[in-house]
From TrEMBL:
SUPFAM superfamilies: P-loop containing nucleoside triphosphate hydrolases. It comes from Endomicrobium trichonymphae. GO terms for molecular function: 3'-5' DNA helicase activity; ATP binding; ATP hydrolysis activity; DNA binding. InterPro entries: DExx_box_DNA_helicase_dom_sf, DNA_helicase_UvrD-like_C, DNA_helicase_UvrD/REP, P-loop_NTPase, UvrD-like_ATP-bd. One of its GO terms (biological process) is response to radiation. Residues 289-563 form the UvrD-like helicase C-terminal domain. Its EC number is 5.6.2.4. It catalyses: Couples ATP hydrolysis with the unwinding of duplex DNA by translocating in the 3'-5' direction; ATP + H2O = ADP + phosphate + H(+). Keywords: ATP-binding, DNA-binding, Helicase, Hydrolase, Isomerase, Nucleotide-binding. ATP binds at residues 28-35. Belongs to the helicase family. UvrD subfamily. It holds the Pfam family UvrD-helicase. This is DNA 3'-5' helicase.
DNA sequence: TTAGTTCCGCTTTTT
DNA sequence: GCGGAACTAA
């Protein structure tokens, strides 16, 4: 086994793998083979005879967990599959189910997501007669979540606020208190509770703690820089006996402090475990030296970090460059031009490109431009499958069948489809329920007594009957059957069919997809119960969509980019106020987190990295002028941006004089389209996501071939086109990105592979087409 | 009760 | 400039 390891690992990776006993911290820089080290380390442990059941590996995302599981069982077929690899939340959910009786918890608990949480908070704020304007839903819901991340109860929060004379905090604590009561009454827990309840169970029941400590002799934590206080304590408790704890992370990639992550957990690991061994993985296998040194240069500006320096043996064949645009549309067009099929002599697939931005709102401009340029793209992460209204509706029915006391779900579907049960009816009923300390469901029989009119009473009764009719199926029938019955018998599907709009058709499609996801769940998992399904869904917030990104350019926020890699990366909107965002530049802590986010983005690039900014940008419908982001200067581009300003001004003038025309001849739209029309929102978002094949443009497999090159604009007979790859006797290979003038006066702006930009007179530049 | 209209206020979002 | 929530009219 040792030979296999050393053959496939470098020396520090090997060192980390072989160190199995005692606390170990692995500082794993971007692209240094972190997952490889974790999986090999587990494989090595098993090869030493450690029982797979006594190894616990914890991650943050389901994606990371399943990836790790797969790689372990690839490495060790058979026993490898028995190691316990899961997310923090999923582990705790299992724990709470298993130990429910010991800690007087009803094991049928539901898991509330953030939307559910906000709904409960809303109820609390109204019930307590608190000014909704001053105490915003999401702010309070967030504050409650952060409190749980810090293992703070409502009274802890109240005491703290009291002490510091914080009125807002005092009120928030009141809301938190009521919120918690409501959750208990509905037999629901939120994400924060999963961890917090587990921690307190372990703290209060020494028998339990002893048992789990003994069980998990080896513990590994991935992305340790993202752990919050509760998770930190949880791990500390579990590892308290054998102390074989190995954490892996990169403080430079800590970008979730706003979600409670505490970077000090990783920075202080060696203080917490004084005899800890520390290994730094610094050899990068992903990026070119130029990209790495630039990223290093940027992150070096942070004060709070563990010093490290990434290096690589990779060939130096890429570049980092700055792209300056005149406005956000121009930014998108310039990027589209670089991506469009002419780019780089057909060397790349669309899926080799990624566009990162700080805020989701920025994606729209790119969607418009890419559509115009016939560039297939996929926007990652905007609206997740299980967050769609129609899916949440169906899920609410299922939750209600499982647990009728779930007020959030009750209120969600009581009038969907419309049953004539309005706001006032529900409010009266809810008030009564609250007074009697019962759920809305339990108060339905008293509807008439409370003064509801005939119609609503009748509708309420038939609704509760409808839910009750599932009671037999609930325990014995398949979840798929229940789901199908809900969809049809509730009239939900019917209403969508009658609506018959493009939106309703998509909703129906999504519902069908939900059914196949349920089917998938039933064939894959051993726990086929409704309860099992609901837990599963609460913790896994997306369905697998393997081919989603195939042959498409990826658009996403920088946060979502963590862990991924692409040959060509565009980081956009690099402007003060947008990235670093808002007021973060005035707060060292926040600024450093923004800078880490920049570092994360930069280190995603394998070969080419573009730092893009725009002098002018529309924000909330108003045009604003921004300074270039300090991160551009920190990356060492003070001079270039000045030089390029000249080029850009010139090129924008040219564009203006050409009336922004660009003709696409072999795409579906054969006519010249004016770029101004971008803002007119030509299609619905769903249509934007259709596979590019439907345009007759992308061949299967997503490879770009010569035949699909964009043609010349009509009437332009010059061989020099925007996007054409050329070679220069001195500057080497490059690509035309701007052109102006004609004939003897034809000027070209060429972006060379070295990253340099040059404006050349075509007649004397001696360029050759390649 | 619901449909239509106006008004507000906007980072990031692993679970 | 857009979406959600709150208000208003029927």
């Amino acid at each position: 086994m040792k030979e296999i390891l050393t053959k496939n690992l470098n020396s520090s990776q090997t060192e980390a793998v072989l160190c199995t006993e005692g606390p170990l911290i692995i500082f794993a820089g971007a692209g240094t083979g972190k997952t490889r080290v974790i999986t090999y380390r587990i494989a090595y442990l098993l090869s030493l005879g450690v029982a797979p059941q006594s190894v616990l590996a914890v991650t943050f995302t389901n994606k990371a967990a399943s990836e790790m599981k797969k790689r372990i069982s690839d490495l060790i077929p058979g026993t490898g599959a028995n190691t316990w690899v899961s997310t923090f939340h999923s582990f705790c959910a299992h724990f709470l189910h298993a130990e429910a009786s010991r800690i007087s918890l009803n094991p049928d608990f539901l898991i509330y997501d953030f939307t559910d949480q906000k709904n409960v908070v809303k109820d609390c704020i109204r019930e307590l007669n608190i000014d909704e304007k001053r105490f915003k839903l999401s702010t309070i819901a967030d504050k409650i979540s952060r409190a749980k991340d810090d293992l703070k109860s409502p009274s802890d929060m109240a005491a703290e606020a009291e002490y510091s004379g914080d009125f807002f905090g005092t009120t928030a604590a009141k809301i938190y208190g009521l919120y918690q009561k409501k959750l208990e009454r509905a037999n629901a827990v939120d994400f924060g509770d999963l961890i917090m309840l587990t921690v307190s169970a372990l703290q209060q029941h020494s028998g339990l703690l002893e048992h789990y400590r003994e069980k998990y002799k080896y513990i590994m934590v991935d992305e340790y820089q993202d752990t919050n206080h509760a998770q930190y304590i949880f791990i500390k408790l579990l590892a308290g006996k054998h102390r074989n704890i190995c954490v892996v992370g990169d403080d430079d990639q800590s970008v979730y402090s706003w979600r409670g992550a505490d970077i000090n957990n990783i920075l202080d690991f060696e203080k917490d475990y004084p005899n800890a061994k520390s290994v730094k993985l610094e050899q990068n296998y992903r990026s070119t030296p130029k990209i790495l040194s630039t990223a290093n240069q940027v992150v070096k500006h942070n004060n709070v970090r563990i010093s490290k320096r990434l290096w690589t043996h990779n060939p130096d064949n890429g570049f980092v460059t700055v792209l300056k645009a005149v406005n956000e549309t121009d930014e998108a067009i310039k990027i589209a031009e670089l991506i469009c099929p002419n780019a780089y002599g057909n060397k790349y697939k669309f899926s080799d490109f990624a566009v990162f931005y700080r805020t989701n709102a920025q994606s729209r401009t790119f969607e418009d431009a890419f559509r115009e340029f016939r560039i297939p793209y996929t926007v990652v992460g905007t609206l997740r499958f299980y967050d769609r209204a129609e899916i949440k509706d169906i899920m609410a029915y299922l939750k209600l069948i499982h647990n009728p006391n779930d007020n959030v779900s009750f209120k969600r579907v009581i009038n969907i489809p419309r049953r004539g049960i309005g706001k006032t009816s529900i409010e009266t009923l809810e008030k009564f329920a609250r007074f009697k300390n019962m759920s809305i469901w339990q108060s339905v029989p008293f509807a008439q007594k409370v003064g509801l009119t005939k119609g609503p009473v009748k509708a309420l009764n038939s609704f509760t009957q409808f839910i009750k009719d599932f009671s037999a199926l609930k325990n014995s029938g398949s979840v798929k059957l229940i789901t199908e019955k809900v969809i049809t018998d509730s009239g939900y599907l019917k209403e969508l069919e009658v609506e018959n709009t493009s939106e309703s058709k998509i909703k129906i499609e999504n519902i069908q997809e939900l059914i196949s996801a349920v089917d998938d769940f039933e064939t894959r998992l051993s726990d086929k119960s409704l309860a099992g399904y609901l837990t599963q869904i609460a913790l896994i917030n997306d369905i697998d969509s393997p081919d989603e990104s195939k042959g498409k350019v990826t658009l996403m926020t920088l946060h979502l980019a963590k862990g991924l890699e692409f040959d060509n990366v565009f980081i956009c909107g690099l402007e003060e106020g947008l990235f670093p965002i808002g007021e973060s530049a005035f707060n060292d802590k926040e600024l450093e987190e923004e800078r880490r986010l920049m570092y994360v983005g930069m280190t995603r690039a394998r070969k080419r990295l573009y730092l893009c900014w725009s002098t002018e940008r529309k924000v909330y419908g108003k045009t604003i002028w921004n300074m270039p982001s300090r991160f551009i200067a920190e990356a060492g581009f003070q001079d270039e941006s000045a030089e390029m300003e000249q080029n850009r001004k010139q090129s924008f003038q040219n564009r203006l004089s050409q009336g922004f025309n660009r003709t696409i001849q072999n795409g579906g739209l054969g006519r010249g389209q004016n770029f101004r029309s971008f803002n007119e929102k030509p299609f619905k978002a769903e249509i934007l996501h259709t596979n590019a094949q439907s345009y007759g443009y992308m061949p299967p497999g997503g490879e770009i071939t010569k035949d699909e090159r964009l043609d010349n604009p009509a009437g332009d007979l010059s061989p020099y086109k925007i996007g054409t790859a050329v070679s220069h006797p001195i500057f080497g290979r490059g690509q035309i990105i701007e052109k102006s003038g004609a004939g003897n006066d034809l000027k070209l702006v060429v972006l060379f592979e070295t990253g340099q930009w040059k404006k050349l007179l075509a007649r004397i530049a001696n360029l050759t087409l390649i």
